[in-house]
Structures are given as structure tokens and as C-alpha cells.
Amino acid sequence: MSTHRIAGKGRFDHGGPVRFTFDGKRYEGRRGDTIASALLAHGVHLMGRSFKYHRPRGPVCAGTEEPNALVETSRGKGRFEPNTRATAQELREGLEVRSQNRIGSLAFDLQAVNDLVHPLFSAGFYYKTFMWPRSFWDRVYEPVIRRAAGLGRAPDAPDPDRYAHRNLHTELLVIGAGPAGLAAALAAARAGAEVTLVDEHAEMGGALLSDPDVVIDGKPAWDWLAAALAELDRLGVRRLTRTTAIGYYHQNFVGLCQKLTDHLDEPPEGAPRERMWHVRAVRVILAQGALEKPLVFDGNDRPGVMLAGAAQTYLNRYGVLVGDTPAIVTSHDSAYHAAFDLADAGAKVAAIVDVRAAPGEGVLVEARRRGIEVLTSHTVTGTNGRLRVKSLRVAPVSGGRVGAARTIACDCVLMCGGWTPSLHLFSHTKGTLKWDEALDAFLPDRSAEECHIAGAGRGLWGYGAALADGAEIGVTAARALGLDAEAAAPVVERDRTGTGETFKELPTDGDAGRKRAFVDFQNDVTAKDIRLAVKEGMRSIEHVKRYTTNGMATDQGKMSNVNGLMIASDAVGKAPPQVGLTTFRPPYTPTTFGAFAGYHRGRHFEVTRRTPIDPWAEAHGAAFEPVSLWRRAWYFPKAGEDMDAAVARECAATRGSVGIFDASTLGKIEVQGPDAVEFMNRMYTNPWTKLGIGRARYGLLLGEDGYIRDDGVIGRLGEDLFHVTTTTGGAARVLNMMEDYIQTEWPDLKVWLTSTTEQWATVALNGPNARRVLEPLVEGQDLSAEAFPHMSVAECTVAGFPARLFRISFTGELGFEINVPARHGLALWEALMKEGERYDICPYGTETMHVLRAEKGFIIVGQDTDGTVTPDDAGLSWAIGKKKADFVGMRSLRRPDLVAEGRKQLVGLMTEDGDVKLDEGAQVVADPEQALPMKMIGHVTSSYYSAALGRHFAMALVEGGRDLEGRDVFVPTPEGIRRATVTTTAFYDPAGERLKV
Amino acid sequence: MTMHDTRMPDATVTIEDLAPDARFSLRVGADGRAAASETLGLDLPVRVGDVARGAEERTALCLGPDEWLITAPAEAGGAIARAFADLYDRTPHSLVDVSDREVTVRVTGPEALTLMTIGCPRDLARLAPGRAVRTVFDGATVILWRDAEDTFRMDVWRSFAPFVRDLLEIGRAEIAAGL
Amino acid sequence: MLLIHCPYCDETLPEAEFAYAGEAHVDRPADPMALSDDEWAAFLFIRSNPKGVHAERWRHVHGCARFFNAERDTVTDAFVSTYRAGEPRPGTKCSAGAPAGDDMKVAAE
């Protein structure tokens, strides 16, 4: 079956097979295989179709930078993922893999017609095409483009997996466990540093996993690796595999995404699929190595064309020979080692085509020894083969002229255009890069963080250099942590050093305009596209990138950026650093939404605050509504009732007898101290000095800008003690604002604030029978109108619990609010319900509360105000202490724009037809006959049906509203224009007779 | 006293809801600290995060430059409130009963620290046993006590407690899964 | 996510415990009613918004609950200093009796 598995090669358990399917066909792989390595073992290179042209594609690399081999995977019910990188996803038993971005089969994709008409899709085609006729857009272009756009299908079921989160503080974070990272971690850990070492692969070792022949400290590479990992474990280094550092933020804050279960046949119960680590490190070492670059030539994207280093990895790590007759095309010595490894494993190397004139002498000797033909100063002018490369056309280049071509038969092409230091994370931190002329690469320059870069990431090539540098940097980091450390660089034999050159697209014969030399495989960007972009006026690499989409795919141009830059700089006629490098942004590799969301999904999406009485409401069928973070009982429907019916019944019951309401969410602040009254005078618009102990007052709070911020009833419990209430949503904000003034503006005031919102459960009783219900339960306070008039407060006992009792009313009825310690809230509620039985006590929710207050014209801050409403606008001028010298916002009330004519004022609106309900938010106009767009003079803020009035009514903010009283305005609605009369907001019992009991 | 116990035979971390203590928020300026200390019967600590322990299981945690959390056995609350009421005229301060504001959950076991890291961004390894801080856990303000190397206690505002408790249970299951 | 040193707790702690609170050293006038409309509007609405070191307020809201001041570079986001409310801005020379104009010069490191 596995036609290309080489006995004795590879790092994995050669035991039982792992079964999986690809496009419905069954395959077997080995434990530790990736999808790509397992398919390649069966000689399958064709794994996907390209994004734009639907060209057949196979894997180019063996890591997470893969642009081509993107597949759909299914790990069981609901566990579907598009765009999985076949080169990174490990096999697990029963994994279902499907190719994507095709109509028809993978081998015969109907959309491949795009490839035949490729001139239509040149750079910037979407700026030029689909422009006309206009009428085609909605019905033709957009549906077709939508169908064709994007890669893969979105999952259509909720993700059943869990995602986890942890915070980690560590002294030293080493990112990348290749030779440099391992040496750094070892050096620092030996010095006593607390080290965390992470690597995105299933195994640590990096390039060592692909180069077993190297000898380190006298040991074969893999033996040295095993000993190094064992030592790290002994030293207590925290090692995380399958863990990608996705982003590097301020002050050494690094995001790690760890894959925990995707590779497991049967994940343990309760185990999360992935975990996002928020790491804070004192020092960071970036040892991410370098990424191999493709060469840019016609047909460099055919299945079977891949990076030389990838072929070496497939052979040595996975025991897979990617082809029997490989041809090598290179501009770097490293590809020779790949050729040698494949040749030694039994492949017949067709030829090594070197773009350079003078490869390293050492590799030429080795090639000769193996009888491999080396063609120096040669170029590739094309490849052949539809679903798999079959041959290569090569030609000598001399003095810039391409000579006669010959064809070389092969079944795979291994290319290497040199190596790009992987500096994405470094760039996230705004670390600067500088162009290195000798290496033709960007290297790290100035660091913005406490971080170090080791090994190939800073352009060092070869195992000896990487290990020595890693050890040195590890010591540097340990010393920076205040530790004594000595570097001990391992001795490396049979090292694989070498040099290379960086090229733009390879020279070719014939019409360059007809060549399909790909730079960005995932976005199907060719060298020609980049040259066209420059020709059409793009000069900066940022413009070229956006015009061509080069480097904008999910791989963020890990392979294409430098090749694109070399071509663009050639076309512009400037050196690469002057054309620039595009910005790398997090995440380093595509990351699941689940990993970012972590625990915050489903029932744990957001805090839901519940009152002590919430369980009763739930048990009694309440409908709930969210109010800031709280869920509050909205209304209590009886069987067969809809919301309107329930609310009308609750309103009538409260006005007719007695209603009970859970007001526990109201913000409460204890204000205490010798300067409490002075503080209250300064914060609130109202005067407080003469408020007697045991009395309460409505308080209005402004911002310094003069606009209403909050309101609530405030009781004076002692000379120096106030019980302040705030709106539900405003509680935290108001406390913050008060603390701000006390701490920073008036530190001389001796007054302290304590939030008691959750100390107290609060139950409101309203209605003509409220006193009768309450009285039998109260000890220590006479509730008669004389002893306890409206706007009173007392400390007493209610239902046996210590209580703060207010006589106040937000409904216009006789009302009480009883505060008891929260643990007793439910018991208090139940006692009142029992006592109220004979008065048909009616529990009501926030909707009825809103209706009853609106009938009295009481505002809700945030509903009838919007942050631009002054006390006068809201008709609350009476709440301003006329003799006060100062309070927060007072000066602003004289600002010219706040005293100007024509401000929006809160008024009542009565529709001509009482059955018509205006929508909250509906706009108000003066003249419905005016031309569009009409001048809007205000909007509806509150609108309800009133059981007491027997009709609908509304409140609105209307320009110069109070002067319009008795006049008609108009409210355009989708159902037609409604006429309404402007009224006062005192809709019900305007004289307040019902409170005088 | 343990009210609700989710102890599992092989659990490496245990989560328990604790019965309420008497808890007060004490606010007093530097000029009144000595008098308040005397009233309480212990020296109010001045470094944020320090806890002082006095007779009758009274503790005072310094939460801010002029703010302490006083705890005592539930039945001792009345005496503390009365003592401070008597102090007020001589030494103005604010003592507010917050016994019902928060509920307390305790996390113990070898993996207790790991469990706390799923919601708390602080470096808890640096929170020494015996100290306590106000901090944030999964977005909720909490007072986090480290009673011992492997024992944490969190005071959570009552309405946030189910949410915090929920995350602790998710985390416990995750730790039990071993990944 | 930043690390912020709280000058009251004397600890360097995660940003998640803190809340931003606007520009620092914008004092509320002692007698607002004595100000002209323009002066009052300037107090309410005009802020410096520098590119570079900015004096700003933070509150250790999930901690000691104190408001304090900080100097932070708006280009790099790096904190230069944090100090208690009411203390002068570090690097200003008001205490040394320098001319008032020097108040705006800050020793940025």
C-alpha cells in the first residue's frame, strides 16, 4: 500500500496503522504522520485546488507555512474544520479528510476554466472587472463571486469542543525548540532560570528531526536530542509542544495557542481542544529558525514541486520518499543535502539544477561522488504534467541570455531559493529589521522588548552556529535575570553548512508574459502580476501587496514576501529595503475562534448577575430581560397571557390594590463621614444640608458637562450617614465618579464611600394596600402617614430581619422599599407574598415598573435621556438647589448652548388614535407634507399602553417641546404617518393625591 | 464549615462554598488608624495585601491606603459594629457591614494554583501564603486570600458568584482530564 | 496587555486590574462660576493629546481602588513613571522654583 515508505526511516512508532479517508478513499498512515506525509507515502501529491485559477496543487512544505495543501477535516460529529493544513494536522484514527475549492472532483475541477482565461484575473482584476453594466452587479456578478470567493466551507453546526485559557508567568520564554532554542533553554536552565520552552510541532527538535546524520558532542543528532530533552525535564523546564506563539505584545506578553486533542483518537472526557496561554515573561528568546523560499519559475506550482527541505523532512522524519526521480532546482547549498539524503534512500536524482555559477565546493564533491549531474548557471523555463509534474525544461544562462533548453524527466521537483529568517513575532513588537546585503535577507535590528534572537532567525546557518549562538543567548538571558551562567557550545561534526543567493524570478526564454511563475501560491499571484502592479503605478511594497494580494493569504506570505519584494524592487529599480517589507501581524498562524473565546461561550459567555429573589421569579414563570449585566424579571405571565396582557394586569393590580417588585439591582452606596453632607452638596444638584435625619430626597447627578448622568432616592440615616441609591446600570459608574472627586479633587473632605449594592436585597411594595401588607411585619417603626410620611427612611425590623425601610414611590402609589441583608431577601419576599395574599398581591416585573413610572412622567436615565439632556430639558429644574454655589455640572448649565432656545425637551405625546402605539426611537416631524428628507425635531423615548388611561401614551424629546403643548406633531412610521398631540408628562394623578394616604 | 462540597476521590483540587463570616469594610484616615486598631484589638496593617490576625479570630486585610476588610466569626459582628459606633465621635471613620455583599469559595489541593491561573492574570506564585489581595478573576472583582501554599479563598460579590463558581468547575474538570 | 506599577500597592500588575481615566493634571477650577464660557469650555473639552510622553490618570479599580497618575509614551505605549494623585509630575521643576513654562517639559527616558 504505502508505495513510498522507506523501511527504517522516520521517527515514529512503526506499530499499528492509523486509518483515515481522503475524498472518501481509505488510507492507512502511521502514528505521528501528518495528513500530508501519509498521503505522500501513498504517492498522492494532488491535495487541493488553488484559490483563483483552481490549478491542481500539492504540498510545498512540511510545516505550518503551507499555502497549498489546505483540506477539510472532520473529527466526528460537529467537529468539522475547513482550511486545515495537511502538512500540520496529525493523523488520528478515523480522520475524514476532503479536498476543497473545487466543483466536481479534485482531479477534474470545473472551475479550472478560470485557469484558461487567466488573463482576466490579472493583478487588480477586481478593480477593473465587474464594473459594468451596473444592473449586472446584484444578479450576476455578486452571486457568482460569492460562490467562487473564499477557501473552504464554513462549519454549519455549533462547535462541540471546549477551549481553555491559562495565565502563565515565567522568567524565560524560549519560542522554538530547534537547535538554537534547545541550546538556549539548556544554558539558561542550567544557570537556574525558570524556563518555558514551546514549539509548534508535535515533537521538539526542529531541523534536527530532519537531519539525523549530524553528530553533536559525539552523539548522533537524535541521541543528543533525546538527552537534551531529558535534561530539560530534569531541570524542570516547562515544555509545551503543539504550541504556537501566535502574537507578541507589549512588555513580553506572548499569546500561545496549544493544540491538545486534535491528534488523539479518543480525547479524555472534559479535555479542552485547545488552550490559549497568556504568558508574561521577564525575558523572551526567539529561536524560530528560518523558512525556506521557493524559486519563481514557470510551472513551479505543479503537484510534485516542493521545497527541498520539505522533501528531506518527509524522508527523515516521516520515512516517506516524495518521488523516485527527483530533480533539484536551487540557489542554495542546502538543497544538495536533500538530494543526497534522497539519493542515499534509493531515489534516482535526475539532476541538480543550480542557478548559481559557483556552488560550494564541498557539495559539488559529494554530488560527484554519488554520480549526480549538476547543472550550474542554469535556469528552469517550465515544467510539464497536469496533476503531477513529469518533466522540467532547463537551459543554460550566459551573460543574461538563455540558451537552448533541454527536458529532464522527473516525478518531483525539489526547489530551494534560500532561507528567510522567521521574524514575524519580532515584528509584532515593532522590532525593526535591516536588510543584509550579504545574505539578501532582512535581519533583526533594534528590539522594542526585552528579547533576544538566536540561530537562523538572525541569519546564522548550520547546526554548529545555531547551537553555539543558542547557548550564548541563553547565557545572556540568564545573566539578565541575575544568574551566573557559562556558555558551553556543543561540538558539531558532519555539520550541514552552506551558502546561497537570492533571486528574483528565474530568467526564461520565449514570451515572459505567458509564463505562470507563482510567487504567492495560496492567492495565485505570479511574478507577472507583481510587475504589472509596478507598471500600473504601485511603488511601495504595501501598495503592491494590496493590488496583487501577494502575501495576503492565511499564510501571511511566509514563502512569498521576499520573492515578491525581489521582483518588485527589480521592477521599480530600487534596492529591496527601499521598496520595503510589509507588516506582519498576529496571529502567526491561523487560530481558531474557539481558542480566542476560551471559556466565554454558551452559558459562560458573559456574567449573568442574579438577585437573591431571582430563584422565586424563575420558579413562578417570569420572563426575564437583561439590564446591564443583570437578568431581571420582566413580567410574570399567567397561563395564556402574552406580554401586553400580563403587563396590563400587573399595572391594574398595583394601582388597584398592591404590587410587589424586586428592586435589588438598584445601586447602593453608603456615604459616611463628617463631610458627608458637604460631599452630597457638591456631587448632586439638590440641596442636602437641611434634609432631616430619617428623610429621603430624589437626587439628580450631572456630569461636569451639565448633562444628566444618574438619579436615585437618597436617605439620610444620620448626621454623617447617607444611603444613596443609583440606577441599576449606573451603580459602578457613579461610585467611580464619586471616588474620583473624593480622591483627586477634594482629598480634604472626610467622607468615605462603600458599595452596598449587593449587601442589601430590596423589595418594593406599591399600591393603596401597601401599608396594610407591610404593617404586620414591621417592628420598631410606626408606618402611619403622620409618623412615616412620603419620603421617609427608618431602620427597623421587617419580617424579623434588620431592615432599612423607605417610604418612596416610583409608581405614584403609596410605596415602600424594604432593604434587608441579601441572604434574607428571598425570605422577605415570601413573607410579603404571604401577607399580601388577602389583597391579591401581584408580583410585577421591570416592564410594569416602566409603565407605572411613565404614567407619572418619571424619567429613566438612559432611556429618556441620552447623555445630552440637561435637568431643564427633562423638566427637572426643580431638583436644582437654587442657592448652591457649586455642584458638579453647575457651571455648564450656563453654557450658551445649554441655555439656547429650541433645545429638545421632554414632553408627552398622545396619538390621535389611542390604539396606536408609537415605536420608541421613532422620529418626530412638525410638518408631514414637507419634502424628503424631512427635518426631524425629536424622537420618542418611551411608549406604552396604560391600563389606567385606557390608551397608549408616549414620552418624547422634542425641540422646544414645552412651547408646543397642545399642538400636533407627526411621527412617520412604516405603517403611515401618525398624528400626536404634545402634552405634559404628568399623565396620571398629576396632583399626587394618591400619595397623600 | 462546609456547605457544599464537590470533593471527588481522585480530585487534585477541591472547591467548597463557605458559610458567611462577619465582614466589614473599614475606612479610616491615617490619623484614626491607631484608635481603630485599638478598637479592633489588632494593629491594622499598612501594606496593601497584608493581613493582621487578632484575638477571637478577628482579621484585618489592608486593601488600600485607607481601606481594610475586617472579618470575624459571624456571631462577633454585632460587638464590632457597636465598638466602632462608640468610636465614631472621637475618631470619624466609616464601618459598613458587608457580610452579605460577598460569598466565599475555597479552592484547595495540589492543583489549586493552576486552577486559579485560568481566571486570574496576576502572578499568583508571588502571592505569599497568609496574604490577600483584591484582584480580578474572569472579569469579576474578587478578594483573593492565599491561606496556604495550596489553599486559596475568594470573596466574590454575591451576584457574580455563580459565574465564578461555574468557571472553577469547568477548570476542575479540565484538570481532572489531565491535559 | 500592559504591566502597570501601582504607586499605592508598590507592585507591578496586569492591566486587567486597572482602568484608564483620562489626562492627568487637569484640575477642576476652585470656583467654576468665576470662569468665562471659553475658560470653562477649555477645562471641559480641551486635552493635550501629545505624540510622546503623556501624563494620564489610571485607577487600580480591581485592586486598591486608588486613582493615580502615570507618564506614558503614546508612541510606544511604554510607561515612563507612575505616581500618586496629588504628587507633581516627575521631571517637572515646579518644586525647584523654575518658571511655570518648564512645567510642560518632561524628562522622557
TrEMBL record, chain A:
<dbReference type="GO" id="GO:0008115">
    <property type="term" value="F:sarcosine oxidase activity"/>
</dbReference>
<dbReference type="InterPro" id="IPR029043">
    <property type="entry name" value="GcvT/YgfZ_C"/>
</dbReference>
<dbReference type="InterPro" id="IPR027266">
    <property type="entry name" value="TrmE/GcvT-like"/>
</dbReference>
<keyword id="KW-0560">Oxidoreductase</keyword>
<dbReference type="Pfam" id="PF07992">
    <property type="entry name" value="Pyr_redox_2"/>
</dbReference>
<dbReference type="InterPro" id="IPR013977">
    <property type="entry name" value="GcvT_C"/>
</dbReference>
<dbReference type="InterPro" id="IPR023753">
    <property type="entry name" value="FAD/NAD-binding_dom"/>
</dbReference>
<dbReference type="InterPro" id="IPR028896">
    <property type="entry name" value="GcvT/YgfZ/DmdA"/>
</dbReference>
<feature type="domain" description="SoxA A3">
    <location>
        <begin position="515"/>
        <end position="598"/>
    </location>
</feature>
<feature type="domain" description="Aminomethyltransferase C-terminal">
    <location>
        <begin position="904"/>
        <end position="989"/>
    </location>
</feature>
<dbReference type="InterPro" id="IPR042204">
    <property type="entry name" value="2Fe-2S-bd_N"/>
</dbReference>
<comment type="similarity">
    <text>Belongs to the GcvT family.</text>
</comment>
<dbReference type="Pfam" id="PF13510">
    <property type="entry name" value="Fer2_4"/>
</dbReference>
<feature type="domain" description="GCVT N-terminal">
    <location>
        <begin position="615"/>
        <end position="884"/>
    </location>
</feature>
<feature type="domain" description="FAD/NAD(P)-binding">
    <location>
        <begin position="171"/>
        <end position="435"/>
    </location>
</feature>
From TrEMBL, chain B:
<dbReference type="Pfam" id="PF04268">
    <property type="entry name" value="SoxG"/>
</dbReference>
<dbReference type="InterPro" id="IPR027266">
    <property type="entry name" value="TrmE/GcvT-like"/>
</dbReference>
<dbReference type="InterPro" id="IPR007375">
    <property type="entry name" value="SoxG"/>
</dbReference>
<protein>
    <submittedName>
        <fullName>Sarcosine oxidase subunit gamma</fullName>
    </submittedName>
</protein>
TrEMBL record, chain C:
<feature type="region of interest" description="Disordered">
    <location>
        <begin position="86"/>
        <end position="109"/>
    </location>
</feature>
<dbReference type="InterPro" id="IPR038561">
    <property type="entry name" value="SoxD_sf"/>
</dbReference>
<protein>
    <submittedName>
        <fullName>Sarcosine oxidase subunit delta</fullName>
    </submittedName>
</protein>
<dbReference type="GO" id="GO:0008115">
    <property type="term" value="F:sarcosine oxidase activity"/>
</dbReference>
<dbReference type="InterPro" id="IPR006279">
    <property type="entry name" value="SoxD"/>
</dbReference>
<dbReference type="Pfam" id="PF04267">
    <property type="entry name" value="SoxD"/>
</dbReference>
<dbReference type="GO" id="GO:0046653">
    <property type="term" value="P:tetrahydrofolate metabolic process"/>
</dbReference>
